[in-house]
């Protein structure tokens, strides 16, 4: 009997978080991130502020949780650094998975990466995925698949690559250029060849 209550509570918690996520995504379509208040989110989700604070400390934590939640959609498809055979195939596999996810959720990602009013979100996305990439680079370096020049921190490399990648994704989603996911993947493959990765 106790397990049923726990499962019901988890379900209610998950539903509440999803309501908050949906409200937040809807608001981002209409307002810049910095202009969205906790009250706005609560009113849109139909919850009390106390309920919001039971789940998140602030809207930055909400956005990080939303990235985690979004990340879960394609987590299983992401190549694992511990299983990589070389740096190039690992990076191109990662790019392919992310581009596939973006192409399936263009509306959501174009909102997150809007050049018009969500620069703060773009910075948070870059930071979030830069940290993920840094963890992968540390594993690859430990396995001898990534060799960086002496004095170049892996954190610099991951931030540099992720900043460029997020900027390219922003361009892809918002420029109006008729570039398909496969064409963009070809650009990244050619870039990897050019850079001798």
Low-confidence stretches are none
**What is the helical fraction, as a range of percent?**
over 70%
* Helix/strand structural class: mainly alpha
* Helix-strand sequence: HHHHHHHHH
Strand percentage lies at under 5%
Briefly, what is this?
The protein is an all-alpha fold and 197 residues long. Helix content is 73%, strand content 0%. It has two domains: 2-58, Orthogonal Bundle (Arc Repressor Mutant, subunit A); 78-194, no CATH class.
Structure, described:
- The chain has 197 residues and is mainly alpha-helical.
- The protein is built from nine helices and no strands.
- It has helices at residues 2-30, 38-45, 49-55, 59-74, 87-104, 106-112, 119-142, 154-174, 181-194.
- The longest helix is centred in the N-terminal third of the chain and has 29 residues, at 2-30.
- The termini are far apart.
- 22% of the residues are buried.
- The mean pLDDT is 85.
Outline the secondary-structure elements.
Blueprint: H1 2-30, H2 38-45, H3 49-55, H4 59-74, H5 87-104, H6 106-112, H7 119-142, H8 154-174, H9 181-194
Key features?
197 residues; 9 helices; mainly alpha; globular; 2 domains; Arc Repressor Mutant, subunit A
């Amino acid at each position: 009997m106790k397990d049923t209550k726990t499962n019901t509570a988890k379900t209610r918690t998950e539903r509440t978080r999803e309501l908050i996520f949906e409200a937040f995504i809807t608001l981002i379509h209409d307002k810049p991130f910095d202009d969205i208040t906790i009250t706005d989110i609560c009113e849109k989700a139909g919850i009390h502020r106390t309920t919001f604070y039971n789940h998140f400390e602030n809207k930055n934590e909400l956005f990080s949780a939303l990235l985690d939640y979004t990340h879960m959609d394609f987590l299983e498809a992401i190549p694992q650094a511990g299983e990589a055979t070389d740096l190039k195939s690992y990076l191109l596999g990662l790019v392919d998975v992310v581009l596939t996810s973006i192409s399936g959720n263009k509306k959501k990602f174009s909102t997150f990466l809007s050049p018009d009013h969500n620069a703060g979100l773009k910075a948070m996305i870059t930071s979030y995925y830069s940290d993920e990439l840094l963890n992968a680079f540390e594993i690859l370096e430990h396995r001898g698949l990534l060799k960086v020049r002496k004095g170049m921190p892996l954190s610099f490399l991951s931030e540099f690559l992720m900043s460029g990648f997020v900027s390219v994704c922003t361009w892809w989603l918002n420029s109006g250029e008729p570039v398909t996911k496969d064409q963009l993947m070809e650009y990244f493959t050619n870039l990897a060849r050019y850079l001798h990765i």
